[in-house]
Amino acid sequence: MSRNQRAGLRNAIIQASLQLGSELGEEGLTMRGIASRLGVSATALYQHFDSKAAILREIRFWGTQRLHEEVIETAIASSEDPVECLRGIAENYILFARSNPWLYSVLVEHDEPEWESMSKEEVDRMLVSLAATHKLFTRGLELGKIKSDIDPQMAAIRMWAALHGLSSMLLSGRIDENHPAFPVSDQQAFLKNFTDSVIRSFLP
């Protein structure tokens, strides 16, 4: 098998794993199921990943990059204003979570990654979106568009924590017009008000 063929199969394993996870959840994601979905032997799978845990680890790296592209890069490309970029990130983050519920759960709701086993480059890859958000807050502070007493690093963490909390509630069905505790009749209006309020909390 050539290098390109090996790379192609490795990517196919990730894509098949994402499909199975999305359809059946983590319990339904098995090495045998992945091999069957691809029409290859389990042996071929083990030449690339030695366990399901190794596949999930790779999915985290793959998903982190996809989140960065769809949430951060898309927002930054839409405006030169750091505040508008932050607003775009907030909106894109919620959209990403709702569009990719299982992948989102793997990225931020499963057990913590084994940070100590990662190289510095791998850690940087995992934190790229948070670092980019930190830079936007720093830029906004320099331009006087962010409160002068804001710590950019803590602001980025606060923003991501707020968005994660809301996204988790959405995905679990807790924000719904029929929910006894959180009855929201107009989800879109609620989400817009929520993201607007998150951004306003950082403005002068």
Ordered list of secondary-structure elements with their pairings:
Elements (H helix, E strand, L loop, with lengths): L2 H22 L6 H8 L3 H5 L5 H27 L3 H18 L1 H8 L11 H7 L1 H15 L9 H20 L15 H14 L4
Helix pairs in contact: 1-2, 1-4, 4-5, 4-6, 4-8, 5-6, 5-8, 5-9, 5-10, 8-9
Can I get a quick summary?
With 204 residues, this protein is mainly α. The protein has helices spanning 3-24, 31-38, 42-46, 52-78, 82-99, 101-108, 120-126, 128-142, 152-171, 187-200.
Structure overview:
By secondary structure, this protein is mainly alpha-helical. The protein has ten helices and no strands. It has helices spanning 3-24, 31-38, 42-46, 52-78, 82-99, 101-108, 120-126, 128-142, 152-171, 187-200.
Salient structural properties:
204 residues; mainly alpha; 10 helices; globular
Instruction: Note the main sheet.
Output: none
Percent range of helical residues: over 70%
Between the first and last Cα atoms, what is the distance in angstroms? Answer: 59 Å
> Number of helical segments?
10
Stretches where pLDDT is under 50 for at least 5 consecutive residues are none
